[in-house]
Amino acid sequence: MPPVRYSTKGRITLEVDILSMVITWFGLSSFKISSGNLTLVTDPFGKEVGLTPPRVKSDIAVLSNRENPAYNNQESLGGTDTFVVNGPGEFDVKGLFVRGISASGEPKNKTNGFDHTTIYAIRMEDINLGFLGSLKQKELSDTQLQELGEVDILFVPCGGGSVCDAEEAVQIVSQVEPAVVIPMHFDQKGLRLRLDKIDVFLKEIGSKTEAVEKFTTKKSELAGKESEVVIISPQR
């Protein structure tokens, strides 16, 4: 029940707390997404990529490729209480809904001929997230678009190499039509992977956005936005 407040004129008013979503970035496709007391982490990476692995406690984690150390470092999640989603299916955990959707990644990363790439539709509070992780496709299929559904915030890889390049990322953004686009999996200091710089994506999508330390938003603030690009500086 929302808290009750009494006005100076004796009238009772109801005050409803509207939670903000706070998004920070560790690098590659690894984010911490918090709302209220709930924390989600995406694609925690291992030291093999050249960056210091994230160390964070999380209620839920999603892995876009459970067989690749760039996305599957569960040891960084701060204990055994984290509920980990690492493939297709539907999950409802602590009021957070996750749908894992089969997708295609870098063919060389297949394990025994099987592609473990998964993208995710996530509903956290009242905000719909589309997380594309280690995706490497020129565009999304009709089935993938249908399963993603309406997306408020789209996390899209854009660095090329083992994931989508800038042109492919922009094509996917045009398919999904999210309110906000958060590019990821591009070149950064210390990374051993060869990826394009963020400037390539910004030029392709036609944006001159400056990076922010974190992105804080509410559902009401997303209304009316059309694929607004938000770049987040990596946390250290």
Distance between the termini: 39 Å
User: β content, as a range?
Assistant: 25-35%
Strands in their spatial order, largest beta sheet: 8-9-10-11-12-13-15
Binned, the helix content reads: 10-25%
Estimate nothing, just give the exact number of structural domains. Answer: 1
CATH class value: Alpha Beta
Compute the gyration radius: what is it?
18 Å
Walk me through the structure.
The protein has 236 residues and is of the alpha/beta class. It is built from 4 helices and 15 strands. The strands form 3 sheets. Strands 8-9-10-11-12-13-15 form a 7-stranded mixed sheet, with helices on one face. The chain has a 6-stranded mixed sheet with strand order 7-6-5-4-3-14. The chain has a two-stranded antiparallel ribbon with strand order 1-2. The longest helix has 11 residues, at 166-176. It is globular, with a radius of gyration of 18 Å. It starts with a strand and ends in a 7-residue tail after the last strand. The model is unreliable at 1-10 and 12-17 (pLDDT under 50).
SSE topology sketch:
Blueprint: E1 4-6, E2 12-14, E3 21-27, E4 30-35, E5 38-42, E6 60-62, E7 83-85, E8 89-93, E9 96-102, E10 118-124, E11 127-131, H1 142-148, E12 153-157, H2 166-176, E13 180-184, H3 198-205, E14 215-217, H4 219-222, E15 228-229
Parallel strand pairs: 5-6, 6-7, 11-12, 12-13, 13-15
Antiparallel strand pairs: 1-2, 3-4, 3-14, 4-5, 8-9, 9-10, 10-11
